[in-house]
Design brief:
Two copies of one chain form a homodimer.
Chain A lengths: L2 E6 L7 H16 L3 E6 L5 H12 L5 H8 L1 H16 L4 E4 L6 E3 L8 E4 L2 H8 L3 E5 L2 E3 L5 E3 L4 H12 L4 E6 L4 E2 L11 E2 L1 E3 H9 L7 H10 L3 E5 L9 E5 L12 E5 L2 E10 L4 H11 L4 E6 L6 E9 L3 H14 L4 E5 L2 E7 L9 H11 L6 E5 L2 E7 L3 H11 L6
Parallel strand pairs in A: 1-2, 1-9, 2-6, 3-6, 9-13, 12-14
Antiparallel strand pairs in A: 4-5, 7-8, 10-11, 13-14, 15-20, 16-18, 16-19, 17-18, 20-22, 21-22
Amino acid sequence: MSLIVQKYGGTSVGSPERIQEVAKRVKRWRDKGNNVVVVVSAMSGETNRLIELINATNPTGTAREKDVILSTGEQVTIGLLSLALESIDCSARSYTGSQANIRTDNAFSKARISGIDECKMCDDLEKGYVLVVAGFQGVDNEGNITTLGRGGSDTTAVALAVALKADECQIYTDVDGVYTTDPRVVSNASHIPKMGLEEMLEMASQGSKVLQIRAVEFAYKYNMPIRVLSSFDEGDDGKSTLVTREEDIMEEVLVRGVAFNRDEAQLTVEGVPDQPGVASNILGAISDANIEVDMIVQNVSNEGLTDFTFTVHRNDYDQAKKILCETGKTLGAKACRGDDKIAKISIVGGGMRSHAGVASKMFTALADEGINIRMISTSEIKVSVVVDEKYLELAVRTLHEAFELDTV
Amino acid sequence: MSLIVQKYGGTSVGSPERIQEVAKRVKRWRDKGNNVVVVVSAMSGETNRLIELINATNPTGTAREKDVILSTGEQVTIGLLSLALESIDCSARSYTGSQANIRTDNAFSKARISGIDECKMCDDLEKGYVLVVAGFQGVDNEGNITTLGRGGSDTTAVALAVALKADECQIYTDVDGVYTTDPRVVSNASHIPKMGLEEMLEMASQGSKVLQIRAVEFAYKYNMPIRVLSSFDEGDDGKSTLVTREEDIMEEVLVRGVAFNRDEAQLTVEGVPDQPGVASNILGAISDANIEVDMIVQNVSNEGLTDFTFTVHRNDYDQAKKILCETGKTLGAKACRGDDKIAKISIVGGGMRSHAGVASKMFTALADEGINIRMISTSEIKVSVVVDEKYLELAVRTLHEAFELDTV
């Protein structure tokens, strides 16, 4: 008997009718002899409704109380899906994050999972229940309700799959898998049936919206295969993307896809002394505020002074800029400035490892279109650039064509 | 330093603006040097919205899952009120029923409180926090979320007041206290500034909607004074009704008020053997289904056979009738029948104890208006009758006048 963990996002459970459809799909998997654990998000629109209530009351209040409010969205869905399963004779039991004992730290609104106590759930699984678990939420050591931040339901699903030693973690969304880039930007983007977890990690972290980056990190760390499917397909054998470890993939391609992200903002502190401890001073203050930093670039120093640039999520831009300018002042910086009208574009592919020339081909293609590159950052299997936001679509189409991704 | 427990119902917290008003009131009590614990209901309309979602999904599903869904209503309010208190520099912490450790049995949708572990709350109180606790909900011994049923927030407030040894339990509603009867039925009903807990218990159980009966039972058992106030009064010195123990009330009046209830249904099993064990057989089956029985009347037997009549909440009518008819069959009953178009009307007063003639005055007044009495039930301080539903308003006005309640 296999154990499958499935996750359904907000649009998949957006109405009682959609929830009934999800219930039927879950039952089909159960009837094939699988044990099934289902992770669900809040019904689409619900989280925004709750955020409006919060903003009408006190937008700058403590994150602890906001999490108490936001976590109710998924709690409603787990109850409704369990009721829908019961109505088609599929016995089910709901679990809040707290009941499932999804332990997190106490970084309210962006908590990280530290462990899952699976004991009680295993009992219920053995009794034949489908378990319906609230995504996006957990509980800290003092019993406070925490949320994992937007997209955290994917992370809940993968973490549960790992804790329960599931055979596969299925992420149901409104698309039938991963494409070489966003089809809304490039209409002839190609569907990818199978790709590496490391590639997906770079695709996700570079802004592909299909899977949440922390979920892929979890899957990568614990080697959990993820399958991305559409909950809008009628049957269970539609297109999907299996994301698995690299050694299971026969042929590594040079460039798997083009990812992009317009949710970031760029911050620079200019003319700080180029000496040990400066970078950690700057980033330490940002990190203490629980702000995540993505790209980091430091130029070579000039007359003992250097410039230091990094990107953060746009939501954190104002706060990060304030912190940076204060830190810059204590370090004697010449100036601090930022820009939140930027876009990041990345090419990702496991085959890059063994091929030179990918980066230069990328830069040439962009230059040919007159697109100025403001920052560059590379890893073994990706190259990212930051450009003016206005060039986003043009840059993505240019790179998709340059690497012939429409023909894969 | 006094400890005050306050409870605010759904209309009092019906919008972010109303929640701000509640926050200001709570802060005024806090600023006067009191420790304050606040119990809140779901925002008005929210519970009905959730019930609609449930009914659109599976109206006959398990109560466990319904409670998971319904309990989110109060959870949103505790977060919002805590945020509103923070916004006016009044530090606050929210508690779900589970976090407050409000222990209940596992009778989902109508659970009863078995105990409250106040330790963690006392810590937070000592630190100066206002505690904001979700009413209507608790947790069973296995960690399942339970709800106390409609009106259960009053019970939460009184139970917390008892557990925390509060000085007073204030119930804020949309009316400024208890009246001799419902002013919507009798326009010259009189406000009652002070009354006995035992009287309130009879008023509540006989259908006065101001306080929830189980809350009054709790207060009566543990001798906790309750004050009923309006959350729509501007200041803190408007009219109110203090409900306290009888010995604190100087003068007991003959009839305190007229209560009524159109939420009940009547059930009869005819021609069952008049022998020991029959009544317990009949009521045992009803009680096993967790249906509460209110009035019980058994007529004297005739040729060894007797009729047995009782009332239940109208929501339980269909289920109770089904159970009764099945039980009746096994007991060899001649017939079983019911009526859900009835009303119950009661006169209540601590002074009745020492005065004869109150019941006969009541029956005469009703007879003079041609109102037929179908059932009678009495206690030390109340007399209740069941009449056709259509006579409800006439009967209430008649009794209010007969006992001169407009002049108290």
